[in-house]
Amino acid sequence: MAKDPKQERELHEIRQRIAHSRDRLGRDLSGMRYELDFPLKFRKSFQRNTRTWISALVLTGVVMTARATSRKKVIYAPSGKSGQQKKGEEQKKGLLQAGLAMGALRFAASMLRPMVISYVTRRFGGHVPPSAAKRY
Q: Given this model, what pLDDT does residue 81 score?
């Protein structure tokens, strides 16, 4: 039995629409992957604006140091056992905060290390004697 030519055309059009929608979906997904690739965006931003990033980090460190040293310490005199308990709780909080800060610094260092190394090697690559470069 032969198929109707009109039906053939409709099937062909439907298949074309499906193929076009697949292509569009593929392009949209690859675009979304690019838009959501934050480590790549961060690396590119750091490579393009290295001086800006480094100066912003230094400025942030200076401001935080200045604010931390400008505060006056308030010392409460502990009264009996409750004072010792508060001191222990404060020590626990301090340790927790220090651990959190160290974890964040380690994460940031591991993210920035390849970028800093590539920047330094590009910047000072001609200044290193070839015998010293072989060691690394």
A: 57
What pLDDT shows up at residue 126?
Answer: 65
**CA Rg, the chain, in Å?**
30
Residue whose tokens read 């604010």? 67
CB 115 within 8 A of CB 46: yes
> What token pair was written down for 83?
């004072």
Best CA proximity match to 46, nearest among 126, 128, 112: 112
3-state secondary structure of 19: helix
pTM assigned to the model? 0.36
Instruction: Name the DSSP class of 128.
Output: S
Q: What span, in angstroms and rounded, lies between the C-alpha atoms of 103 and 130?
A: 37
How far apart, in Å, do the first and last CA atoms of the chain sit? Answer: 76
